[in-house]
Amino acid sequence: MTIILVVSGVLLFVSALLIGYRVLAGPNSLDRLVGVDALLAIAICGLTIWMVYTRDTTLAPGVVALTLVGFIGSVSVARFRVRDEE
């Protein structure tokens, strides 16, 4: 079980690095928005992996709060997004 959690953590770290590059080098604001949303999803998955590893569920409300913040943030930015200049 520990090997699976370590492999999951390493894969999440690698994907966070790749998505971090996309956030920094994104050609427009929508790419950056999707990248930040994906980074938040990776953070949520990382917290969940940590909860499974430690068998401690005290972080569960934090995961729910991060999910809510990510959803509300994505919807509000997508709603009020202005087109990028070509």
UniProtKB/TrEMBL annotation:
Subcellular localization, as worded in the UniProt entry: Cell membrane
Entry's transmembrane regions: 6-24, 33-53, 59-80
Pfam families assigned to the protein according to its UniProt record, in alphabetical order: MrpF_PhaF
UniProt membrane topology term: Multi-pass membrane protein
Keyword annotations of the record: Cell membrane, Membrane, Transmembrane, Transmembrane helix
Main location: membrane
Name recorded for this polypeptide: Monovalent cation/H+ antiporter complex subunit F
The species this protein was found in: Rhodococcus artemisiae
Organism placement in taxonomy: Bacteria, Bacillati, Actinomycetota, Actinomycetes, Mycobacteriales
